Amino acid sequence: MKYRVDEIIIVEGRYDKNAVSQVIDGTIIETSGFGIFRDKEKAVWLRKLAQKRGVVILTDGDGAGFVIRGHLKGILNGVQVKDAYIPDVYGKEKRKSSPSKEGKLGVEGMKPETIVEALRRSGVRLSQEGDYPPREEITKTDFFTLGLSGGANSAELRSKLIKKLNLPEKLNANGLLSTVNVLYSKAELYELMSSITAENTPPMSSTD
Question: What is the pLDDT of residue 61?
Fold first, then answer.
Protein backbone atom coordinates (compact mmCIF):
# COMPACT_ATOMS: atom_id res chain seq x y z
CA MET A 1 0.00 0.00 0.00
CA LYS A 2 1.18 3.49 -0.85
CA TYR A 3 0.54 6.70 1.06
CA ARG A 4 -0.02 10.06 -0.55
CA VAL A 5 2.04 13.02 0.64
CA ASP A 6 1.16 16.50 -0.61
CA GLU A 7 4.51 18.11 0.21
CA ILE A 8 7.56 17.81 -2.05
CA ILE A 9 9.94 15.17 -0.66
CA ILE A 10 13.63 15.91 -1.23
CA VAL A 11 16.16 13.05 -1.09
CA GLU A 12 19.82 12.80 -2.01
CA GLY A 13 19.97 10.33 -4.90
CA ARG A 14 18.07 8.10 -7.28
CA TYR A 15 18.33 5.00 -5.11
CA ASP A 16 16.80 6.96 -2.23
CA LYS A 17 14.08 8.14 -4.59
CA ASN A 18 13.39 4.57 -5.68
CA ALA A 19 13.07 3.43 -2.06
CA VAL A 20 10.67 6.22 -1.10
CA SER A 21 8.57 5.79 -4.24
CA GLN A 22 7.83 2.20 -3.21
CA VAL A 23 5.64 3.46 -0.37
CA ILE A 24 4.81 7.08 -1.27
CA ASP A 25 2.60 8.50 -3.99
CA GLY A 26 3.90 12.03 -4.34
CA THR A 27 6.57 14.26 -5.83
CA ILE A 28 10.06 13.09 -4.92
CA ILE A 29 13.08 15.13 -6.06
CA GLU A 30 16.75 14.21 -5.73
CA THR A 31 19.59 16.63 -5.08
CA SER A 32 22.22 14.52 -6.89
CA GLY A 33 24.11 14.48 -3.62
CA PHE A 34 26.35 17.53 -3.32
CA GLY A 35 25.39 18.46 -6.89
CA ILE A 36 22.78 20.82 -5.45
CA PHE A 37 25.60 23.06 -4.20
CA ARG A 38 26.57 23.87 -7.80
CA ASP A 39 23.17 23.78 -9.48
CA LYS A 40 21.76 27.28 -9.05
CA GLU A 41 18.92 26.71 -11.52
CA LYS A 42 17.77 23.62 -9.64
CA ALA A 43 17.84 25.63 -6.43
CA VAL A 44 15.51 28.22 -7.99
CA TRP A 45 13.27 25.43 -9.29
CA LEU A 46 13.10 23.74 -5.87
CA ARG A 47 12.17 27.01 -4.20
CA LYS A 48 9.37 27.59 -6.71
CA LEU A 49 7.92 24.14 -6.08
CA ALA A 50 8.36 24.49 -2.32
CA GLN A 51 6.45 27.76 -2.22
CA LYS A 52 3.49 25.99 -3.82
CA ARG A 53 3.47 22.74 -1.85
CA GLY A 54 5.86 22.86 1.10
CA VAL A 55 8.83 20.53 1.52
CA VAL A 56 9.95 17.50 3.51
CA ILE A 57 13.71 16.93 3.65
CA LEU A 58 14.63 13.23 3.92
CA THR A 59 18.41 12.90 3.68
CA ASP A 60 20.77 10.25 5.04
CA GLY A 61 21.67 10.27 8.72
CA ASP A 62 25.42 10.68 8.19
CA GLY A 63 27.46 13.87 8.21
CA ALA A 64 27.07 14.43 4.46
CA GLY A 65 23.30 14.08 4.76
CA PHE A 66 23.18 16.78 7.44
CA VAL A 67 25.38 19.11 5.37
CA ILE A 68 23.01 18.72 2.41
CA ARG A 69 20.01 19.22 4.70
CA GLY A 70 21.51 22.46 6.01
CA HIS A 71 22.22 23.71 2.51
CA LEU A 72 18.65 22.97 1.43
CA LYS A 73 17.28 24.91 4.39
CA GLY A 74 19.39 27.88 3.31
CA ILE A 75 18.00 27.65 -0.22
CA LEU A 76 14.45 27.30 1.08
CA ASN A 77 14.66 29.98 3.76
CA GLY A 78 11.17 31.32 4.41
CA VAL A 79 9.44 28.32 2.88
CA GLN A 80 7.60 25.74 4.97
CA VAL A 81 10.12 22.93 5.56
CA LYS A 82 9.60 19.74 7.55
CA ASP A 83 12.44 17.47 8.67
CA ALA A 84 12.16 13.70 8.32
CA TYR A 85 14.96 11.75 10.00
CA ILE A 86 15.86 8.10 9.55
CA PRO A 87 17.30 6.18 12.53
CA ASP A 88 20.94 5.17 12.80
CA VAL A 89 21.11 1.64 11.40
CA TYR A 90 24.55 0.22 10.76
CA GLY A 91 25.19 -2.02 7.80
CA LYS A 92 25.72 -2.02 4.04
CA GLU A 93 23.26 -1.61 1.18
CA LYS A 94 23.10 -4.68 -1.08
CA ARG A 95 24.29 -2.84 -4.18
CA LYS A 96 27.44 -1.55 -2.45
CA SER A 97 30.70 -3.44 -2.09
CA SER A 98 31.50 -1.78 1.24
CA PRO A 99 29.70 0.25 3.93
CA SER A 100 29.61 4.04 3.86
CA LYS A 101 32.33 6.03 5.63
CA GLU A 102 30.30 6.13 8.86
CA GLY A 103 28.92 2.63 8.40
CA LYS A 104 25.29 3.77 8.44
CA LEU A 105 22.54 2.77 6.06
CA GLY A 106 21.11 5.61 4.01
CA VAL A 107 17.51 6.19 3.01
CA GLU A 108 17.83 3.58 0.28
CA GLY A 109 18.66 0.93 2.90
CA MET A 110 15.68 1.62 5.14
CA LYS A 111 12.70 -0.73 5.38
CA PRO A 112 9.48 0.66 3.86
CA GLU A 113 7.81 0.95 7.27
CA THR A 114 10.82 2.93 8.58
CA ILE A 115 10.50 5.45 5.75
CA VAL A 116 6.78 5.82 6.42
CA GLU A 117 7.39 6.33 10.13
CA ALA A 118 10.11 8.94 9.45
CA LEU A 119 7.68 10.91 7.30
CA ARG A 120 4.87 10.55 9.83
CA ARG A 121 7.10 11.92 12.60
CA SER A 122 7.96 14.93 10.43
CA GLY A 123 4.33 16.01 10.71
CA VAL A 124 3.16 15.32 7.16
CA ARG A 125 -0.31 13.93 6.55
CA LEU A 126 -0.17 10.44 5.09
CA SER A 127 -3.33 9.68 3.14
CA GLN A 128 -4.01 6.09 2.22
CA GLU A 129 -5.04 5.13 -1.30
CA GLY A 130 -8.80 5.35 -1.56
CA ASP A 131 -8.94 8.34 0.82
CA TYR A 132 -8.50 10.78 -2.05
CA PRO A 133 -9.70 11.05 -5.66
CA PRO A 134 -7.12 10.19 -8.32
CA ARG A 135 -5.38 13.27 -9.71
CA GLU A 136 -5.68 13.84 -13.45
CA GLU A 137 -2.08 14.02 -14.58
CA ILE A 138 -0.88 16.47 -17.20
CA THR A 139 0.66 14.36 -19.98
CA LYS A 140 2.90 14.77 -23.01
CA THR A 141 -0.27 14.57 -25.08
CA ASP A 142 -1.54 17.68 -23.29
CA PHE A 143 1.75 19.44 -24.07
CA PHE A 144 1.32 18.54 -27.74
CA THR A 145 -2.30 19.71 -27.75
CA LEU A 146 -1.29 23.02 -26.16
CA GLY A 147 1.53 23.52 -28.64
CA LEU A 148 4.23 23.11 -25.99
CA SER A 149 5.83 20.24 -27.90
CA GLY A 150 5.98 18.93 -31.44
CA GLY A 151 5.22 22.21 -33.21
CA ALA A 152 7.13 24.95 -34.97
CA ASN A 153 6.46 27.40 -32.13
CA SER A 154 6.79 24.91 -29.25
CA ALA A 155 10.10 26.26 -27.94
CA GLU A 156 8.74 29.82 -28.01
CA LEU A 157 5.56 28.82 -26.15
CA ARG A 158 7.54 26.89 -23.55
CA SER A 159 9.77 29.93 -23.09
CA LYS A 160 6.73 32.14 -22.50
CA LEU A 161 5.27 29.67 -20.00
CA ILE A 162 8.61 29.39 -18.18
CA LYS A 163 8.87 33.17 -17.99
CA LYS A 164 5.26 33.42 -16.76
CA LEU A 165 6.00 30.93 -13.98
CA ASN A 166 9.39 32.50 -13.13
CA LEU A 167 11.24 29.22 -13.74
CA PRO A 168 14.82 28.65 -14.96
CA GLU A 169 15.02 29.47 -18.68
CA LYS A 170 17.04 26.32 -19.45
CA LEU A 171 14.34 23.99 -18.12
CA ASN A 172 13.66 21.38 -20.80
CA ALA A 173 10.26 20.04 -21.89
CA ASN A 174 10.36 17.05 -19.51
CA GLY A 175 11.39 19.23 -16.60
CA LEU A 176 8.63 21.70 -17.40
CA LEU A 177 6.09 18.86 -17.58
CA SER A 178 7.14 17.60 -14.13
CA THR A 179 6.95 21.11 -12.72
CA VAL A 180 3.50 22.03 -14.01
CA ASN A 181 2.20 18.70 -12.68
CA VAL A 182 3.23 19.92 -9.22
CA LEU A 183 2.01 23.48 -9.61
CA TYR A 184 -1.24 23.10 -11.53
CA SER A 185 -4.17 20.86 -12.36
CA LYS A 186 -4.82 20.03 -16.00
CA ALA A 187 -7.70 22.52 -16.15
CA GLU A 188 -5.53 25.26 -14.63
CA LEU A 189 -2.76 24.68 -17.16
CA TYR A 190 -5.18 24.89 -20.09
CA GLU A 191 -6.58 28.13 -18.67
CA LEU A 192 -3.07 29.53 -18.17
CA MET A 193 -2.02 28.67 -21.71
CA SER A 194 -5.20 30.26 -23.03
CA SER A 195 -4.27 33.52 -21.29
CA ILE A 196 -0.69 33.35 -22.63
CA THR A 197 -1.98 32.83 -26.16
CA ALA A 198 -4.42 35.72 -25.75
CA GLU A 199 -1.66 38.04 -24.51
CA ASN A 200 0.36 37.39 -27.64
CA THR A 201 -2.45 37.56 -30.18
CA PRO A 202 -2.47 40.97 -31.91
CA PRO A 203 -5.84 42.72 -31.89
CA MET A 204 -7.77 42.74 -35.13
CA SER A 205 -7.71 46.08 -36.89
CA SER A 206 -11.08 47.74 -37.26
CA THR A 207 -12.31 48.99 -40.61
CA ASP A 208 -14.80 51.74 -41.30
Answer: 94
